[in-house]
Specification:
The protein is α/β, with parallel strands linked by helices and 111 residues long. Helices cover 28% and strands 20% of the residues. A 4-stranded mixed beta sheet has the order 1-2-3-4, with helices on one face. The protein is globular, with a radius of gyration of 14 Å.
Length: 111
């Protein structure tokens, strides 16, 4: 589950940020990074026009890590062209199949 740090007057951005992040597909699992539970936290600083995404990957040895991280940053910049975007890769908590939200599990099962 993603936690959000977004000022109350900008609460509407939550869905827009989530939709932008859902355009980034894990190339090995073929499911978007939100539904896989790879995104942990989103912080929007409207005053400084800055968005921080804290996320993990399905594996520390993910061969597509650079591509996925670039895709995340680009999805934010494309959706919020007036903002700077930063993607912070974290390894705690460690991702595993038990952390995948129900929607992601359905997609992995092909339903």
């Amino acid at each position: 589950m993603i936690t959000f740090d977004i000022p109350e007057p900008l609460f509407f951005l939550r869905a827009t940020v989530t939709d932008a992040l859902k355009t980034v597909i894990d190339p090995e699992l073929h499911v978007n990074i939100v539904d896989l539970g790879l995104v942990y936290h989103v912080r929007v600083d409207d005053l400084n026009r800055y968005i921080l995404i804290k996320m993990t990957l399905s594996s520390r040895n993910c061969p597509m890590s650079d591509s996925i991280l670039s895709g995340v940053k680009n999805s934010i910049i494309r959706t919020f062209p007036d903002y700077q975007a930063e993607v912070s890769l974290v390894w705690e908590p460690e991702w595993n199949y038990s952390t995948i939200p129900e929607e992601g599990l359905r997609k992995l099962r092909g339903r």
